[in-house]
Amino acid sequence: MIEKQMAIQAPELSVAKWFNVDAPLSLEQLHGRPVFIHAFQMLCPGCVSHAIPQTQKVYEMFAKTDLAVIGLHTVFEHHDAMTPVSLEAFIHEYRLTFPIGVDTSGTGHLPVSMERYGMCGTPTTVLIDRDGILVSHKFGRIDDLSLGVMIASLLARQTTPAGTDTGSPQTDNAVDAVECGPDACPAT
Amino acid sequence: MIEKQMAIQAPELSVAKWFNVDAPLSLEQLHGRPVFIHAFQMLCPGCVSHAIPQTQKVYEMFAKTDLAVIGLHTVFEHHDAMTPVSLEAFIHEYRLTFPIGVDTSGTGHLPVSMERYGMCGTPTTVLIDRDGILVSHKFGRIDDLSLGVMIASLLARQTTPAGTDTGSPQTDNAVDAVECGPDACPAT
Amino acid sequence: MIEKQMAIQAPELSVAKWFNVDAPLSLEQLHGRPVFIHAFQMLCPGCVSHAIPQTQKVYEMFAKTDLAVIGLHTVFEHHDAMTPVSLEAFIHEYRLTFPIGVDTSGTGHLPVSMERYGMCGTPTTVLIDRDGILVSHKFGRIDDLSLGVMIASLLARQTTPAGTDTGSPQTDNAVDAVECGPDACPAT
Amino acid sequence: MIEKQMAIQAPELSVAKWFNVDAPLSLEQLHGRPVFIHAFQMLCPGCVSHAIPQTQKVYEMFAKTDLAVIGLHTVFEHHDAMTPVSLEAFIHEYRLTFPIGVDTSGTGHLPVSMERYGMCGTPTTVLIDRDGILVSHKFGRIDDLSLGVMIASLLARQTTPAGTDTGSPQTDNAVDAVECGPDACPAT
Question: B58–D145: do the CB atoms touch at under 8 Å?
Fold first, then answer.
C-alpha cells in the first residue's frame, strides 16, 4: 500500500458520465460531509475481488448523510475493453448500487481526475474530510479492519489541522509491480 | 448445480476466434484424450470468482497430453459489453493461459455451441471422454473436491459404456434464479 | 450479533490465571485507556476461526498505550476439556501474544466475570471507554469493517455522556442456537 | 507437502479409544475397500482450519461401502493438553461424525501408529488401496482438487502393482518448520 498524505484541498473530480445517481455529483456540493472515493477499473482483478465489494459494503454501512461514497472508473489501459457500455453491464452483473463516475479521458493515457490526484494505479482509496481536505490517498489493498478505523477517524474529526493524520494504522505494503497483480494494477 | 447426463456424442464446438492457441482446436482432433470444457462469460461473477480460477488450476495440474482443457466464451447477454476486444484484455489481466474460444454468435441471443449443448447458463462444466462421448454437463458452482473426483474418474476410464456414469459425487444444488447470482448466470 | 448497551461502569474482571503478561491486569489500572475485551473458549469454532485471529490483529494494529486488548477465557461448558493446561498449549500453537486471563470459576457453570457482564456465550466482544464505562457488548461474529469503526470511534471520544453510543454500525444478526454454530457458542 | 511412496503393506493401526463407531475398526477388516486416514492433533492449527473439515467433507461425499474414512488423533506434543477428554469435547463442538481413533501412546513422545507409519507430523493423509497396500502418505496441506483426484484414482484401481502410482498430481510443498505453522505441525 502506497500512501501519500497531503494537507491540500482535494481537487474536483472530472466525470464524463455517472451511474447510480439522479444528478451529477461534485466534491463542492458534498462539503460538510466526509467523502470516500474508490478509484477502480472493471478489469483490475484486485478491484473486482476485494476493493469493489469492500466499497459496496462501506456504502451500505453508513447513512448517505454521514459519509459520501463515490466509485471512479479510472481507465488507464485497455481503453477499448472498458468502455462505458462494458462498465454499465459490469455494474448490473455485480449489483453495485453506489454512485459511479467515469473519469474523463485525458490527453495522455491517464484520465483527468486520476492525473489531478496523482494516483499510482487501481485500486486507489481516497479520503476527504468535511472541509474538502485530502486526508489520505492509498494505492493497493486495504484490509477491512484498517479501513473501518480510517473511516471512523474521519467521521469523528470535525476540523483538519493541516499536516495531522492520526487515523491510519501503520501498514505499508508497497506495490511496485509493473503488471497487474492479484491485489492491484499500477499505472506505469 | 443442474446436471444433464447423456450418453451421446459430444457436438463439435463452433468457435469464431481462439486465444492462447497456435492453431484452432476441435473435439475431433482431441479424440483419445478426455476433454474438460468450461463455458463462461467474462462478466459473470461466479465465473470470475470461482470457475475461471478453478479451470486455470485444472489446466496447470494435468499434462496437456492427458487432459485437454478448453475455455468457451458463451456470451448470451450484454453482447456489446463482452466483445472479443474486452475478452482479450480480460485474459491478459487475469493471466489466463488455457486455450479459450469465442462461441460463434447464433441467430437468437444464445451462441451456437451453447445451443448445441443445451447449456443453461454460465458457468457450465462439460466433460467428454476419450471416445468423444459427453459424460457430464453441469451448470453452476462445482467444488474442487468433487471436480477432482470427476476428472480422475474420467482419466481412469478407457471406454464409456452408454448410460454409465459412476464418477460424479451426489451433489445437486439447483440454480433457478433468473438474474446472475454470486455463483452463476442462468440463460433465460 | 446480540448487542447490549449500558452506560454503566464496567465491572472488574475476576481472573484466576494470566498468560502473556508480566503482572496481573485490572480494569482499574487501565483507566484513561480504552479497553477491548474478547471473551472466548478454546473449543468454540467461531472463536478459533474468526474472533481470536481478529483479536490478535487488533492487538498488533494499535499501540499498547492507545488501546488495551485482553482475551478472557470464559469456559461455561466442557470444563474438563478446557483447563489452563490445555489453554496454555492452545496459546502456544496459535501463537497468541495478547494478554489472556482465565475467568474464575463460579458457583454455577458460568465463570465469575462472564456472569458479572451478563454475557450470552462466546465469542463476546466488550468495549470500555477511557472512563471505565461499558460502551458495547456484542455476542457473535463482528466483521472487521464494523469492528474497525467501533474501535476508532472509541479512540476518538474523550468522555462518554451516559446513554450515548454513536460508534456502532447498524448490524443485528441474532444468534439463538442452543448448540455451538460456526460463528458462536451460546451459554444456555 | 512431503510425500513418501512405498509399495508396502499398510501397518495395522494401534488405537486406544474410538469415537463415532459402534465397534473398533481395523485395517484388516476393511480389506477390499480403499481407506483414507487423516492423522491430526486437535491443537494443530492447519488441521483445524483445513484438514479436519476436508476429512469431514470426504466422509460425507462417498458411500461408506466405497471408501473407509478414519481420523487418527496422533498426539506427539502437549500430551496433557490433548487428552481423550479434550478430544471428545472437540469432536462434539466441531460436529465431526467420521470414525476417530486415539493413537496409542508409545514409549517415546510419538504414539505407536504414527511411528509405524513414519509420519512427519500433522496433518498427514494416508491412502491405502483395496489390497491393504500403502499407496500414498503426505504431510501438510493438500488442496481439494488434488485430493479429489487422488481418491478417485484409488477408487478406480482394482489392483496395485508394486511401485506404481499414477494418481497423484505433481505437487511438492516441502514443510520443514520446526514449530507448527498455519498449515502443519512437524514432529521433530
Answer: yes
Q: Is A177 exposed, middle or buried (0-12, 13-18, 19+ CB in 10 A)?
A: middle
Contact B155, B66 (CB under 8 A): yes
CA distances, A186 to each of A46, A68, A107, C85, D4 (Å): 11, 26, 19, 50, 43
- State the amino acid at position C2 in one-letter form: I
Q: What is the pLDDT of residues A108-155, one digit of tens each?
A: 889 999 999 999 999 999 999 999 999 999 999 999 999 999 999 999
Distance of residue A14 Cα from the nearest chain C Cα, in angstroms: 29
- Edge-to-edge, what's the strand order for the sheet holding C124-128? C2-3, C134-139, C124-128, C35-40, C68-73, C100-103, C15-19
Q: Residue D64, class by beta-carbon neighbours within 10 Å (0-12 exposed, 13-18 middle, 19+ buried)?
A: exposed
d(CA A127, CA A137): 7
Q: What residues pair up with C19 in beta bridges, in sequence order? A: C100
In the numeric block, the cell 481413533 is attached to D101
Distance CA B23, CA C16 (A): 73
In the sheet that B68-73 helps form, which strands lie side by side, from edge to edge? B2-3, B134-139, B124-128, B35-40, B68-73, B100-103, B15-19
Per-residue confidence of chain D (188 residues) as pLDDT tens digits? Answer: 444 455 689 999 999 999 999 999 999 999 999 999 999 999 999 999 999 999 999 999 999 999 999 999 999 999 999 999 999 999 999 999 999 999 999 998 899 999 999 999 999 999 999 999 999 999 999 999 999 999 999 999 875 444 444 444 433 333 344 577 888 888 86
d(CA D185, CA D121): 5
Q: Classify the C-alpha dihedral B48-B53-B56-B62 as positive or negative.
A: negative
CA distance A58 to A70: 10
Best C60, C145, C160 member to test A by mutation, with max A CBs in 10 Å, is: C145
CB burial string B110-128: b at 16+ within 10 A, e below: bbbbbbbbebbbbbbbbbb
Instruction: For residue A18, report the phi and psi dihedrals to the nearest 5 degrees.
Output: -110, 145
Classify domain D2-157+165-186 by CATH number.
3.40.30.10
Count interface pairs A-C at CB distance under 8 A. 66
Residue B144 CB coordination number (10 Å): 18
- Stated as kind and residue range, the H or E segment containing D72 is strand D68-73
CA count, 13 A, side-chain hemisphere, B185:
26
| pTM: predicted TM-score of the whole model, two decimal places | 0.86
Q: Note the CATH number of domain A2-186.
A: 3.40.30.10
Class of domain B2-19+31-159+167-186: alpha beta
Whose CA is closest to B14, among B6, B4, B23, B24? Answer: B24
ipTM (interface predicted TM): 0.84
Interface test with B, best of A19, A41, A43, A178 (most B CBs within 10 A): A43
